[in-house]
Amino acid sequence: MKGVRKITMNQRSSIQLVTAIAFLLVLALTSPQAGERPRFGLQGPQVVSPEVSTDRHVTFRILAPKAEAVRITGGDMPAIGQGVEMTRNDEGVWEATLGPVDPGAYRYNFNVDGVSVIDPRSPSISESNSNVWSLVYVPGSDFMDTKDVPHGALAEITYYSSSLNRFRRMHVYTPPGYELGEGTFPVFYLLHGASDSDDSWSSVGRAGFILDNLIAAKKTKPMLVVMPTGHTGPFTFGRSRLPIEEFGQDFLTNIMPYVENHYRVQKDRNSRAIAGLSMGGAQALNIAIPNLDKFAYVGVFSSTIFRITGGGPGGNEGPSWEEQHTEALDNAERKAGLKLFWFATGKEDFLIETSRATVEMFKKHGFNVIYKESDGGHTWINWRNYLDEFAPQLFQ
């Protein structure tokens, strides 16, 4: 063909020889000589971290040749506990192997000479309320593993909150097939806890993969899952009250209208659900009970009723939540349309007694409450399981 240059075998061999010589020359020029520091990015041993073996042992590594002490810290992984000391080899690589570890997603960080750092060799992260964690996933869980099934999409949405006078963020999961532009879907509002952010349910919480697997198995209907930011300002445990009322205003004034104006969702009561963990569970109750005409499904994970006044949970000033919401609690007509009121708490959870008391309070007011106590405590290990149990009961 005109304009096409043909290369003979001899010419190809010559090109390959020249390329090889050029590569060796560059390697010789950039390789450090004896006593020289590495150049051009050659910075010591290659480090792989985290490394998950087939027997579910997890090895963590970090290159820190000048460090004197390195520990791995984390939250839910039982093997880490309050922290695990890492050992250093002759090349300056610190290492620790834990396990076998139960399948699931786990947050962790390194503590290098007193400074908390994420794993520099891993791109997987999970945002919490006040910092970023590295994230490792140990496969082997049927309900939350990444499988060869149709997958939904996860969007990071910025919206303006007129009630808070600033821009805010939420994550929105749309089910497989939503992008085809056909049909409308029910919507499930899923709220995070005080230690977390709107990223948490989709990262360490695996919400998207859990819904993908449930929908593929036909255990639940396709739905949107909206995961908003629950904090309305700076929050530190022991110094701030929980943002219960302010978030409720943002939710009703901005979040719900945004979702219903920008997504193909069904807008009737029977097509809306709300649930949350810990702080998010209290927020879900504070939103849903006075507005039961808007929600037919309510879930509370590892949570309870907190006093809205009096400086936060356990405060003794002002009327109790029950006293403030007596009219809503005793509205028989609205209660009749509540299809599911579901609570779950771990037997080792520090909120177990107040969770039980909250359930009894709702039963006293005539609510049909389903209450489950699982093993374990106030951890993502439980909350992912609760989502897997709660979601199939929605929109039936």
Description:
The protein is an alpha/beta fold. It has two domains: 51-138, Immunoglobulins (Immunoglobulin-like); 153-393, 3-Layer(aba) Sandwich (Rossmann fold). The protein has helices at residues 9-30, 207-216, 244-262, 279-288, 321-324, 326-329, 332-336, 352-364, 380-390, and strands spanning 51-52, 58-63, 70-74, 84-85, 87-88, 93-98, 104-112, 115-117, 125-127, 132-138, 153-161, 166-174, 187-191, 224-228, 272-277, 297-301, 340-346, 370-374. The strands form three sheets. Strands 11-12-14-13-15-16-17-18 form an eight-stranded mixed β-sheet, with helices on both faces. Strands 3, 4, 7, 8, 9 and 10 form a six-stranded antiparallel β-sheet that branches. Strand 5 and strand 6 form a beta hairpin.
Number of separate helices = 9
What's the number of domains? Answer: 2
Give the class-level CATH name of the largest domain: Alpha Beta
Helix content: 10-25%
Structural class: alpha/beta
What general form does the structure show? globular
Number of strands: 18
What is the makeup of the main sheet?
Answer: 8 strands, mixed
The share of residues in extended strands comes to: 15-25%
Q: Tell me which CATH architecture of the largest domain applies here.
A: 3-Layer(aba) Sandwich
Provide the low-confidence segments as ranges. Answer: 1-12, 17-41, 308-315
CATH-assigned fold name of the largest domain: Rossmann fold
Secondary-structure element order, as H and E?
A: HEEEEEEEEEEEEEHEHEHEHHHEHEH
Name of the CATH homologous superfamily of the largest domain: Alpha/Beta hydrolase fold, catalytic domain
CA gyration radius, whole angstroms: 26 Å
**How confident overall, as mean pLDDT?**
87
Distance between the termini: 65 Å
